[in-house]
Amino acid sequence: MTDITKKSLAQIVKAIKGKEISSTEVTAAFIKNIEKSKKLNAFITTCSDEAMKNAKEFDKNQKLDSLLPGVPIAVKDLFCTKSIKTTAGSKMLENFIPTYESTITKNLWSEGAFLLGKLNCDEYAMGSSNETSFYGNVINPIADQTVPGGSSGGSASALVADLTPATIGTDTGGSIRQPASFTGTVGLKPTYGLCSRWGIVAFASSLDQAGPMTKTVEDCALMLEAMATFDKKDSTSIKKKKENYFKNLKDDIKGIKIGIPKEYRVDNMPKEIEILWENGKKILKDAGAKIVDISLNHTKYALPAYYIVAPAEASSNLARYDGIKYGHRSSKGSNLIEMYENTRSEGFGDEVKRRILIGTYVLSSGYYDAYYLKAQKVRKLIKEDFDESFKNVDAILTPSTPSSAFKIGEKKDDPISMYLNDIFTVPANLAGIPAISIPSGKDKKDFPLGLQLIGKPLDEQKLLNIALAIEKRSGFKQSLKRWWEN
Amino acid sequence: MSKKNSEYLIKGDKDKWEVVIGLEVHAQVISNSKLFSGSSTKFGANPNTQVSLVDSAFPGMLPVINKYCVEQAVKTGLGLNAKINLHSVFDRKNYFYADLPQGYQISQYKNPIVGEGKVVLDLPNGSKTIGIERLHLEQDAGKSIHDIDPNNTYVDLNRSGIALMEIVSKPDLRSLDEVNAYVKKLRSIMRYLETCDGNMQEGSLRADVNVSVRKLGEKKLGTRCEIKNVNSIKFMQMAIDYEAKRQVGLLEDGKSIDQETRLFDTKKNETRSMRSKEDAHDYRYFPDPDLLPLKIDQKLIDDIKKKLPELPDQKKDRFIKEYALTPYEANVLVSEKEISDYYEEVAKFSDKKLAATWIMGDLFALLNNKDLSIAESPVSAKNLGKLIKSIKSGEISGRIAKEVFEYMTQSGEDPKKIIESKGLKQQSDPKELEKIIKEILKKNQKNVEKYKSGKEKIFGFFVGEVMKISKGKANPQLVNEILKKLLKG
Asked: Do B59 and A364 touch (CB under 8 A)?
């Protein structure tokens, strides 16, 4: 058999189910790649021994009637994994070993998969380039010294470098879709409440949503099917029947109406993004869809509103990292307050501190109404814009990001320009609706570019179907030379 | 209402001052598990043995509302004649403390589960209505223990996450007696409803006390101080008294009151400043994004309403109507559900009025003496009922009954048995009595003469003689009748 690690998840599952290959062989192949790819710094923790043990266990006692039989999967280090260190990319949790398993990873394991390792990410998922991780930058396999995007940067890098057959990330403002776009992979942020947040280190509770990151749309459907369950431990989890996204996937989109929002045509948008978008429209038209111009009036307020709501929630969510119960505790300080100050000064990085400060500020008395409350109003208006549009269209097509992957360090000292990366992705988080990024073209540097499809709440199936139509017709091809391997 | 009820004024050097008091009572909800986790709420367990991952705020843990606690809050709201809000919101109250694992307390800020209500107080000279501002649900914090080690503080999270109801009164209280009556009434209502056990020693009921003073007749409220976390009625009264006098002292000296949070030092009997308004925490309240707004069905409220037990006020009215008790008697008897149950059990077998007299007299004296609750009474309601029945039927006299009661407190025995075995049955045979009385009159001819010559006071002497001979068992009414008849003749 040819290199199994280059295959899609669905192909690997098929091969294991057809007994063409064992889980042990698959796992060993990925571990070999991981060992040769240290330069990418995609992993914070590898679980090679445990993974091999699990693979052998699986092969001894093959249970094939599941979605992910014998598949090793590495996950973003924001998912708590029982007995395996979970850092959230922070020094604060450098030695934190959960006694519990997040619902999402538990769902994967109950479908036959097992853990291959924990993937690097921006600290507490706060970042768009993976440069805020305490565990160092992650390299995008498309080019040296290039960021993979963030915050699920390690996930995207590992996926495109064939270090894991599929992975999962979390998306608070674009943290799945932007790295997917930067690496030429598929990334889906599901409807808020479709995937349980239980056991995921929280960034901004009302925006956080776990989702699949895969090489193909078909894989994406397969992963989502495994992940999405109602969870009574998460009060915001949606109670609904389980769907067969994988089985029901089809690229017949005849008659489907696609909205093109004029507000996403931002100033100084690179020509290549413009062309990508036009090309996307053409592809969908050719596939039988109807293109409709729409307006999402409040789009320009989405980014500022996001950078109020997300830090506000984060400032409160991160209050628990106080050195008392677990995680880093400073040895300095002669009283409780000093211990807090030193612990949090030492344990958190600059970007996390910046957002805690912003969040604390916007919630403070005297500022609450002007910032937090106003941002919540904007959020409502943005949701209403989408609701209104979805009366006329089935999905909305936009670029995923305003640019392709940039150089490490290029935007590190300019938070505003870094935040602008999320301009196309945050509206879906604010509205709680699903959105997917599909690799659809390349720029003149030969860097991948992604198109984003935004859908109605719980309309993931349709979104996947349209994505499949784009994937089949875009002609996008990954052409990586494994330059990073030692 | 009579003005006398609230006659609690601070006499300064210059003026008379009225004290305005409002209470924020924190009542622990009776529930087997915590407000947002499944951990047990049992009191007195070993430190940190009733703590879930949610209670200790591990990464990725999420709160899930305990429906039973919501029902308990609704029930309490109905008991306080309050509006139940179909839509309420849980907010985060953000502050750092070692025994607050999340770094915030989940509470209700702008939209509480229960709105305005009222509580009626029965005071010696009439009743007074105290307004309830709101009732909201919130999590309790853990406990910091400072006295185990000189250099370290220990944290026990068993209490962390237990459900509390914060019941906020309007500033309607004017005296220490009213505060006493108010807390007791709240406690009584919640105990009737079984929503809070009201156990102040275990901290199930504690209060923040808001105190301000104003010159008698003044309409505007003065600047208030809040005294935090006072855990007995006595301490509340001591704290208010100290604080009101302190404020009057300052104002009469021409100084002003700083709005601040104060602590009551129970050892020194004084309040001390904890933090000023400027240093007040900015709690940065905002809706908890981990929890959806709490929606309550009208049907749930109706169902709870239907199952609501008889509350003290209703029971009091019934006691007055059904048993012809005085409002004072009824009030005392309904103050604790256990007492009212005991009373009704006694009254079932015997005279309603006499039952009240006995319980409030001899039984309470006994319980007080021995420091027992009514549940621990050595005299069962059934036996007390039998005793009263015996009095009413004339089997024993009231005086003998006291003797029998004394035996009952020691042995817990059936009064019938005691009367039988000790031979205490009343002598009620008129013929027997006439015989004894004739004998006495014969022996005391001189006194008979005196009586007949108009010295009627001497009647008591004859009664005493009869009792002496009958060892107190003679039926006093019969003795009177026979004596009068024979002395006439």
From this structure: no
In chain B, the number of structural domains is 3
B207 and B356 share one domain: no
CB atoms B58 and A360 under 8 Å: no
User: Residue B393: which domain range?
Assistant: 310-422
Query: Same structural domain for residues B353 and B460?
Result: no
Please judge whether A320 and B286 are an interchain contact, meaning their C-beta atoms are less than 8 angstroms apart.
no
* Catalytic residue positions of A, numbered: 76, 151, 175
Q: How far apart are CA A420 and CA A151, in angstroms?
A: 14
CATH number where B435 lies: 1.10.10.410
Whether residue B157 sits in one domain with residue B51: yes
Same domain, B300 and B316: no
Cross-chain Cβ contact B104/A232 below 8 Å:
no
The H or E element containing residue B230 is strand B225-230
Best mutation target, A99, A101, A325, to test chain B (most B CBs within 10 A) = A325
Q: What is the pLDDT of residues A429-450, one digit of tens each?
A: 999 999 999 999 999 999 999 9
**Residues of chain B contacting residue A311, judged by C-beta atoms under 8 Å apart:** none
Residue of B nearest to A324 (CA): B98
Residues B110 and B52 in one domain: yes
Helix boundaries (H) for B233-380: 233-252, 298-306, 312-323, 327-334, 337-349, 352-358, 364-370
Inter-chain contact A201–B59, Cβ cutoff 8 Å? Answer: yes
Q: Which of B304, B334, B351 is the last residue of a domain?
A: B304
CA nearest B290 in A: which residue?
Answer: A205
Contact B284 A319 (CB under 8 A): no
Last residue of a domain, one of B422, B445, B474: B422
Report the residue of chain A nearest B152, measured CA to CA: A335
3-class secondary structure for A412-473?
Answer: CCCHHHHHHHHCCCHHHHHHCCCEEEEEEEECCCCCEEEEEEEECCCCHHHHHHHHHHHHHH
- Chain-centre distance for alpha carbon A15: 27
Counting beta carbons within 10 angstroms of the beta carbon of residue A227, is it exposed (0 to 12), middle (13 to 18) or buried (19 or more)? buried
Q: List chain B residues with CB under 8 Å of A209.
A: none
d(CA A256, CA B153): 64
Instruction: Tell me whether B1 touches chain A (CB under 8 Å).
Output: no
Q: ipTM score of the complex?
A: 0.96
- Do B387 and B440 have their domain in common? no
Which one of A106, A170, A235 would you mutate to disrupt binding with B, by most B Cβ within 10 Å of its Cβ? A235
Q: Which residues of A touch B291 (CB under 8 A)?
A: 235-236
- Asked if residues A354 and A415 have their Cβ atoms less than 8 Å apart, the reply is yes
Does B128 lie in the same domain as B52? Answer: yes
B150: contact with A, CB 8 A cutoff: no
From first to last of its 489 residues, chain B has per-residue pLDDT tens of 344 445 799 998 889 999 999 999 999 999 999 999 999 999 889 999 999 999 999 999 999 999 999 999 999 999 999 999 999 999 999 999 999 999 999 999 999 999 999 999 988 878 899 999 999 999 999 999 999 998 889 999 999 999 999 999 999 999 999 999 999 999 999 999 999 999 998 889 999 999 999 999 999 999 999 999 999 999 999 999 999 999 999 999 999 999 999 999 999 999 999 887 777 789 999 999 999 999 999 999 999 999 999 999 999 999 999 999 998 899 999 999 999 999 999 999 789 999 999 999 999 999 999 999 999 999 999 999 999 998 888 788 888 899 899 999 998 889 988 888 877 777 778 888 888 888 888 888 888 888 888 888 888 888 888 888 888 788 888 888 888 888 876
Q: Which of A96, A236, A320 sits opposite B102 (nearest CB)?
A: A320
Contacts for A452 with CB less than 8 Å, ≥ 6 apart: A177, A181, A397, A398, A399, A400, A424, A425, A435, A436, A437, A438
Same domain, B203 and B274: yes
Record: contact B289-A205, CB cut-off 8 A: yes
Nearest CA in chain A to B100: A320
